[in-house]
Amino acid sequence: MMGQPLVPTLLRKHLAELAARDERADGRGRWESRDLSVEVGVLERAEGSAKVQIGDTIVFTGIKFQIQTPYPDRPDEGGLMTSVELRPLAGRHIEPGPPSPESIEMARVVDRGIRESGCIDTKDLCIIAGEKVWQVIIDCFAISDDGNLFDAFALAAIAALHNATLPGERFDIGEDRPLPVNKTPIMCSFQKVGGRFVYDANREEELGGDERIHITLGGDDHVHSLQKGLKGAFTASEFAEIMDAAKQRCAELKKIVDSL
Amino acid sequence: MMGQPLVPTLLRKHLAELAARDERADGRGRWESRDLSVEVGVLERAEGSAKVQIGDTIVFTGIKFQIQTPYPDRPDEGGLMTSVELRPLAGRHIEPGPPSPESIEMARVVDRGIRESGCIDTKDLCIIAGEKVWQVIIDCFAISDDGNLFDAFALAAIAALHNATLPGERFDIGEDRPLPVNKTPIMCSFQKVGGRFVYDANREEELGGDERIHITLGGDDHVHSLQKGLKGAFTASEFAEIMDAAKQRCAELKKIVDSL
Amino acid sequence: MMGQPLVPTLLRKHLAELAARDERADGRGRWESRDLSVEVGVLERAEGSAKVQIGDTIVFTGIKFQIQTPYPDRPDEGGLMTSVELRPLAGRHIEPGPPSPESIEMARVVDRGIRESGCIDTKDLCIIAGEKVWQVIIDCFAISDDGNLFDAFALAAIAALHNATLPGERFDIGEDRPLPVNKTPIMCSFQKVGGRFVYDANREEELGGDERIHITLGGDDHVHSLQKGLKGAFTASEFAEIMDAAKQRCAELKKIVDSL
Amino acid sequence: MGYGDVQMIDEKGNRVDGRKAGDLRPIEIEMGVVPVADGSASVRWGTNYVIASIYGPMEAHPRKIQRQERAVLDVRYNMAPFSTTDRFRPGFNRRSREISKVTAEALESVVLLELYPRSKIRVEIEVICAEAGTRCVGLTAASLALADAGIPMTDLVVSVASGKINDVVVCDLNKEEDNYGEADLPMGILPNSGELVFLQMDGDLSPEQFQEAWDYNMNAAMEIHVMMKEAIANKYGGES
Amino acid sequence: MGYGDVQMIDEKGNRVDGRKAGDLRPIEIEMGVVPVADGSASVRWGTNYVIASIYGPMEAHPRKIQRQERAVLDVRYNMAPFSTTDRFRPGFNRRSREISKVTAEALESVVLLELYPRSKIRVEIEVICAEAGTRCVGLTAASLALADAGIPMTDLVVSVASGKINDVVVCDLNKEEDNYGEADLPMGILPNSGELVFLQMDGDLSPEQFQEAWDYNMNAAMEIHVMMKEAIANKYGGES
Amino acid sequence: MGYGDVQMIDEKGNRVDGRKAGDLRPIEIEMGVVPVADGSASVRWGTNYVIASIYGPMEAHPRKIQRQERAVLDVRYNMAPFSTTDRFRPGFNRRSREISKVTAEALESVVLLELYPRSKIRVEIEVICAEAGTRCVGLTAASLALADAGIPMTDLVVSVASGKINDVVVCDLNKEEDNYGEADLPMGILPNSGELVFLQMDGDLSPEQFQEAWDYNMNAAMEIHVMMKEAIANKYGGES
């Protein structure tokens, strides 16, 4: 479980003063991202993988496959599972132990964005109907947490899926083939800092900020997943503003992923 | 786990003074129950259910069925399982977490009363010998704990069993039919308060009391289950006295259940 | 988990003074064992058993068998599992709870000594290739911990294995027959106390000592398992010295076990 | 998602249970249902049945959860074992953990936590019968129970979800509709300010559909708010 | 219950192991079997073999278990993995938890806890070999171990069970009888006062049978008490 | 053990990957790979890839782990779920616990713990890709990360294993060799004094083979030590 940091009153005050001048501590604009890079095929033992770095935030996502028996009511559909490991490697504030509410929320929000976009057709995962189907496991693993792990994990997850190979040979069921991935859902996260929402909050802004909104968009700006986290209330017009920012940023990131 | 209340010395003294005058804090006689009501068929998703209210103590019991493979040495016998959930909803003193010793004891004592009375003939739960049998699950759930959960759960459990339907249709194995229940075992619990045993202790009496005795009787005053709980020593004549009270009260409660 | 004893500065000083005079607190020589006894066949419900007493350290080891399905890649090989239970019965310093790192280490070190010696040929445990094999379970259980549980468990384990019977009749697969055990691996443990290694440290020496080395030898002084535990650094010549002591003591203990 | 071949709305816009697109299921509120609690309420909503109880403010322990300048909310959402058609196994559950977290965060946005430094308020939500939308019913019940306990709040929280079936946006999916639902948008609304303290969504909604679902929720929240105020007034003889 | 067709008592009233209805299995007590403990005892009873050890009185921690005015007993009953025919898997076990609880409550009724405010006394009971009646053997062993540790008690606790087979009430069921048993009545008796501190029962007993089983237990307790006093006297050279 | 019929070394003494008996796999060290940590390093060794990070010294809590006169090391060795061919399930793992324990004890032997009374230093070791010998790679990476964090040590720890295949002793088994390995001798060596702080072994080694494996490790440690010093110097512009 993540430790409970003392409420950083001074930090909040500082961030509010910056916000009043329409500034951020690291000089970025409200909707501006930190430096971002995506690499795929970086994990030797995974069937698909990606490394995402956003500023000093670094994550790996690995795709592994297992064979399972399908559910009786969906005999020709495979499975999808998303796991988030926030190991204490990635930050002073992360404590060892069973999954924290934070990591459970991250896993579920990343999972919903992928799942609800329909980018994986679970029927493509059928091996023998009623007997054997593939389960896709998306393992998100943090190396360095300087804020906005949600977006880093979501981006690494969709990039790793695009990079993944169904390991038929290892399981003696035919040749290896690329995992079919039909779409590129993208998550954008916004946090209220100093009274206004900003995109891609770093850890300092997370500590001194209020509520967070996660938006996952697919093609044609269709919404696939939303999540509001943390304490705070927001208005309809605030939401409309970040939805516009999300539409623009998701399109940019989609291009990056699709070009890998 | 339930919290450890400080020993309520003043409360004990007060209760002892009342006992010396043969009185109880709420004006009841030694063997007198609080207002009691039993309703059945109260839970939409359960296959049998009951709500019991004794004073400000409120519980639900729901019956659910599952299909299981019988034990190899008893191929034509179904199973019975009793679970008690003391969720923190039901009282300030109940803490979240894994089952407390208190809830385990309750579940086991309620279970023994039902099981040992033979009111469920496990052979009536056979579907296909050696292959499929019904498992009856008795889920006891506290809503408000003002003392004597043992009796409330036991009463709700036997009432819910009498109300239960084997859900053949839901499992595609024939028509729904009433669960055969042959007997009506009844539990009566007594607590030593101010040096003498009383029936149906409320929470105040539990806090300021000593040992507790739970008696489950079937037809013809046959004993099916006994349990002494908490710190305290009692004499053979004290036991004889509460056994007499139990015989009378069990007969009254049996009538109530059988008339539902 | 074992409690963290305060660093016993005075004890360490005392032990260092003794070591400077080449003495030990109980008068033993550096390589001298406490009184040791081994009894076999002491546990009524186990298929093989031994009791080992070394000074005031007392342990039981019981052998139980289960039937399991072999691993697909080793269809004709049975299994071996070693478990160590450090229950709070055996010492003030042992706390209840899930397996401590200490007990996990003990189990794994005892297991490696047995396993790597090849004293059990896992093919001797085959019942029907690909279908049924025996699993040997070695349960090490401490009664009284006055130091050097490692050696006590390892000795009891190999003695109990030599004493064990495959319970064919209980599982309806033929007659009972002795478990084939081809070798007699022996563990000797050394602890640095007052700056030099001694054999068979008692609990006082453990508390005031430094690093520990466990050596398991088989026939012809072949090494089967080593483990260095606890904080401390040692030199090659220190190691050579205790390896010599181990060779001599292992031979003595092997005779004792082989003569049971 | 997307079992488009099952017709859940007829040509006249009637839903399987006879409701129109914007209609709510029947809702029934009862205050003070847990006699030993400091505050409580139950909400029956369709065949959902949820009980919430409040304990506190009380001393926060263990110490490490204490906050110098405000109270902490300790919120638990849980499904009773008999609340679902297949028995719901007690124990750790990732879905319940997530719902507990977002419910807590929604309530923290309205409770005047600064009034109770170093203390803890326990909010217990138990789903006794589950149909569809239990997280909304639970959040609504919890806000009623907090009112029953006399805990000061800036506003009640009204929670409701709209969704999509057969590519049509409708309000407050029932269980049958939920099985074939193509999207779900639960919100937690402050009826006096119109602000949101809770928002989730999954499925697929075009920008226009999203706006439609949003508006259904806003209207429904006002309707439910009236019932909530009535239930409180019935108990306390005044307006909340 | 009720496998009436297996004959466990012959026409002369002889049981499968040759005992009469009221006879106990052989019992052997040893004091001080755990050298590092503050007190200990083992009891062999039939093929039951149980060891109990005592640590304390010591400081009670964690703090929250401490009681201002008395000691707390921390009692654990546990089955060793090799104590049963099928290996007994270590770990959480509802039966062991219940037995630990009622054993603790029985012992709390005799130990002079007020003598040791704020402290803890650990009582560890390990079943090394199990036959039938391990909870009685364990409680008896624990009371001997407390005596060995010099912990003041108002009385020893003697625990024994009677039961019913073939509709006949008999004392101290062995394993074979227990498999076909129709009732079991374990009691914890204070031999000097005749009071009870432990009582359980399951199965089916008519009022008359119940009285018969009760009386067997009372008589057996007196017999066992003599052996217990002897074992203590052998070690300490006096009467307990 | 002992699959002697698979030939892993040819008649010229060449191993499957072309190495000679005493050769190491390629090793690559990177310092400071976890920007938010107080110190960190990664080691790629064959296809092993291990990252270690350091946090602290910081206040030791919970209190009961605190030591008056020195710091405690809190060491965790863990395998990432995607680090192995079959997915490695997160959660409790006996092997990882043992490796964490012996790794901690090795590092405690070199870190000047007395400099930081009452404090805690966290050492986090994550195996990102596993080949063979991950415990050695992890211990080596941890010692580099401690150096990167500026924690004073008496020496670096260099860890390496030698083993036996086809009855031939060789240095630094790769995965394929490890599958057929007949013995494994991992050691943790202080390159300046030649002392050992970590030692394990399993399999079967005659006294002579044991000496041979020991010597391979000692030589390899000196070779790796050079690379470690270079990596540190590259970052800090000096000698470690």
The description of the largest β-sheet of chain A is: 6 strands, mixed
Strand content of chain A: 25-35%
Structural class of the secondary structure composition of chain D? alpha+beta
* Silhouette of chain D: globular
H-E order of chain D: EEEEHEHEEHEEH
**Helicity of chain D, as a percent range:** 25-40%
CATH-defined fold name of chain D: Ribosomal Protein S5, domain 2
Strand order of the largest sheet of chain D: 1-2-3-5-4
Mean of pLDDT of chain A: 95
Number of domains of chain D: 1
Task: Please describe what this structure looks like.
- The complex is a heterohexamer, with 3 copies of chain A (260 residues) and 3 copies of chain D (240 residues).
- Chain A is an alpha+beta fold.
- Chain A is 27% helix and 29% strand.
- Chain A has a single domain (29-258), classed as Ribosomal Protein S5, domain 2 (2-Layer Sandwich), CATH 3.30.230.70.
- Chain A is built from 5 helices and 12 strands.
- In chain A, strand 11 (212-217) and strand 12 (223-229) form a beta hairpin.
- With 240 residues, chain D is an alpha+beta fold.
- Chain D is 27% helix and 30% strand.
- Chain D has 4 helices and 9 strands.
- In chain D, helix 1 (94-108) packs across helix 2.
- The mean pLDDT of chain D is 94.
- Chain C binds chain F through residues 4, 6-7, 99, 101, 104-105, 107-108, 112, 115-118, 211, 213, 218, 220-236, 239, and chain F through 1, 64-65, 67-70, 94-95, 97-98, 100-102, 105, 108-110, 185, 190, 193-207, 210, 214.
